[in-house]
Amino acid sequence: MNKFLKLPLFLGTVVGACGLLLAVVYKSTEKKIASNELAKSNQAYVELFSAYNASASDFEVVDTPNFEGCTKKVVNKTVNGACYNMSISGRNNTIKFVVAFADNKYVGYSDIANGEDSGYGKDLIESMGDLVSGLSAQTKLLEYSTYTSAMAGKSATGEPLAKAIELCRADYMAMTW
Amino acid sequence: MKKLKIILNGIINENPTFVLFLGMCPVLATSSSIYSAIGMSACVFLVLLMSNISISLIAKFTPSEIRIPVYIVIIATIVTAVSLFVNAYAPGIYTTLGSYLQLIVVNCIILGRAESYASKNSVVNSIMDAIGISLGFFFALTIVAALREILGTGVITMKDLEGNVTSITRIIPLAKEDKVVYDALITEFKIGDVNSLKELISEYSNNGYNLSKITKELKVITDETYGTKEVVDALKLAANQSFSSPYEIGLLAQPSGAFLVLGFCVAGFNGARKAIANKKAAKAAESK
Question: Are A29 and B84 an interchain contact pair (Cβ–Cβ within 8 Å)?
Fold first, then answer.
């Protein structure tokens, strides 16, 4: 067989077989990965509202707001609180997190999944809970961008994160109870 | 016998980390804890085993001009499949390894063994090679990780596949005054009086102890479950995380510490290997 035909044909066959295998693996793990993330975010709601003695049944899914990155919005009507499931692009990979508000303040931040590097974005994500917990909901997190940029190598993670949290804050502030 | 020799070769004479100096990136990056070292070694084993088998099977039919792209496509597919499975069934390991799991694609141990061994040998021998090299990588990575974790943090932290901390074993003892505080807190946990425990925590916090982890844990655990074994265990974990020993060498837990520990291990391993080889040679010469 002509070499110009044989080589791409062989490579194409290998790539096709690999693609098929990946599709099968993706399909077989898709549900499990989604259920892991769902369980993690359900646990996050309860933990974030632990100070209000909330249980899983206190949360109710509402229509997903129409802003970038928001995949789900959950409200806790007993304490006028809201949790936002967000999915944004970080420095390395997708960052999934939950940010919660109640009583006109930030209740907390919980990481669901991220592929950021230790020493850079991962450290920032880990410190996010302590940074936002208890802040007044009037506080725009963008005002903290000086903080996130000042942490060398972390701004690529910090800036989209701060912007996404600000979108959630704005939505929460616009809510009427 | 030959099969066992292939395995031993991967562990000792061709140890990928200590002798061949391959795959240094994951060794430096994932040797901060024994948990991540075990997770990384398991993933490397799965990838190496499957890539060695597939490459050994198709090597005869692969045109030599495109063998490297073919190997890379196969390795990348296996790594992606393994990372999907790890994400689904061991999310704790997936989170701990982060981007280093996907970076196994460019780990030179995998491509190196594909090119130098699997493409030239039978499937069975390639499986033995994968087992030997993976065991060698596991021993090297775990030794470096154990030294870094124990000397750098004073404790060994183990987690389950979900990533929940299951145990923290203190190896390097606490300072005498910290031990007194730690014991007082644990005793109070066991008694089960939430209010007196909260008072004790705030008293110690005012005296400069960083007990934020215990305080957080208390917030999460409701009063009804207080006093059960699970709660005491959870608070013990938090207490272990809140204290640190003055005898720890914190630098070793940092990325720069990895170079120090690795250098020490490489020198020790190769020194011992050469000493044994010299002894054997001397014995052989004597018997002649």
Answer: yes
Among chain B residues, the shortest Cα distance to A28 is held by B85
A16-30, B161-175, B266-280: least confident range: B161-175
Instruction: Work out the minimum CA distance from B182 to partner chain A, whole angstroms.
Output: 24
ipTM of the complex: 0.79
Residue spans of the domains in chain B: they are 2-161+251-287, 174-242
Choose the mutation target among B95, B210, B221, B241 for the interface with A, i.e. most A CBs under 10 Å: B95
Q: How many pairs of residues across A and B have Cβ atoms under 8 Å apart?
A: 65
Position B1 pLDDT exceeds 60: no
Q: Of A33-47, A101-115, B227-241, B269-283, which gets the smallest average pLDDT?
A: B227-241
Asked if the Cβ–Cβ distance from B99 to A92 is below 8 Å, we say: yes
Query: Contact B56/B113 with Cβ under 8 angstroms?
Result: no
The average confidence (pLDDT) of chain A is 85
- Is this structure's pTM higher than 0.95? no
The CA distance from B276 to the nearest CA of chain A, in Å, is 40
The span from the CA of A71 to the CA of A69, in Å, is: 6
Among A20, A36, A47, most B C-beta atoms within 10 A, so best to mutate, is: A36
Q: How far is CA B78 from CA A19, A23, B53, B135, in A?
A: 11, 12, 11, 19
Per-position DSSP letters for chain A, written without gaps between them: --HHHHHHHHHHHHHHHHHHHHHHHHHHHHHHHHHHHHHHHHHHHHHHTGGGT--GGG-EEEPPPSSTTEEEEEEEGGGTEEEEEEEEE-SSSEEEEEEEEETTEEEEEEEEE--PPTTTHHHHHHHHHHHHTT-BTTS-GGGGHHHHHHSTT-HHHHHHHHHHHHHHHHHHHT---
Q: Flag if B69 and A53 touch (Cβ within 8 Å).
A: no
Distance CA A36, CA A82 (A): 21
Using the beta-carbon criterion (under 8 Å), do A117 and B98 form an inter-chain contact?
yes
Q: How far apart are CA B84 and CA A26, in angstroms?
A: 7
Cβ distance B95 to A113 less than 8 Å, yes or no, reads yes
Tokens coding B159? 């987690």
Lowest mean pLDDT segment, chosen from A45-54, B27-36, B68-77, B277-286 = A45-54
